[in-house]
Fold this sequence. Notes:
The chain is α/β, with parallel strands linked by helices.
Amino acid sequence: MVQLKFDQKVCASCRSADCLLKCQYMRFSGHKEAHGEMMKVMKGKDSRVLTECVTCYACEEYCTRGNHPFYLISEKREDKGMFTAPRPITTQWKNMTSMQGKYLVGNVKDTALSCCYLPELGQLGTGEIFKDVASAGVFGAEFMCPAVHSHFARMSVIKERLPVVIENYRKLGVKKVICMHDECYGTLTSIASAYGMEVPFTPVYYLDFVLQRMKELKDKIKPLNITVAYQRSCSNRLIPDKLPVVKRIFQLIGVKAPKRKYQGENALCCAEIFRSVSGYKLADDVQKRNIDDMLAAGAEYCVFNCPACQTSLSEKVNKRGLKPVHIIDLCKMAIGEKEREAVS
């Protein structure tokens, strides 16, 4: 089975310990304590990190040396049997995402449109923006990115299933896979690389694709002139270099996203996974602080790029007076394919 490429010397010589010092859910007195705890994790010793990590993925972004602290934490948790949620929950996730030969493959040639195992993505990948690739969709557990299991410290599931997913794409003969979910792109780039898995096709980040198409459709764009708050997903932490793409799309379609406390590197995730991992109290607190911050910034819309985040927060933001909308639907509004009132 593939193994994590983690350089102990890089971690041991780190002078910042940002992976833990920047964490929004654990507190450390300074570099000495944070670095010391990471050394314990690295050496397989007991550490409070192994019990307190909420699996927000952010340390993957905070580590500027590319040494994958979150994957290491998840590996060590599994080694010690320190699973983050009750076994029935982790087993349920493993079973309901297992490959059973029930999948859908469209008219795939050189390019596939990955809808992961999220049916909402199929509907989003339609219309003028996706007219040339909409029929090339693939959907099902056989093409699902298994990164979700890292939330439950089940890295063995990822190491077992990801090579199969990659091979399933290879069998389709594709040269490109447009990943409609941050987690899929992050899995095929960050996770695959961290475990030394070769990907024999080019993963394409869907917002890169959307940005290019919106530039081609520029004559159809009518600036929306709205103020939004962007809900960054946890899986976007695996691909932080792609965050600026959102800003470029907003600029192109006339959307203003004012500065707020919980954005960029300091973003709060949707927190729904925290209900299983850390309990309802933390999840409710994070969601309230996040939505309060959106309203304080003067946002009219809450913009999502992850269907799971949207499912988790849509009702909550709507009750507070914010209109929930996926970023693709926002682009469709800008070219006249969707009415603002029709977005729910």
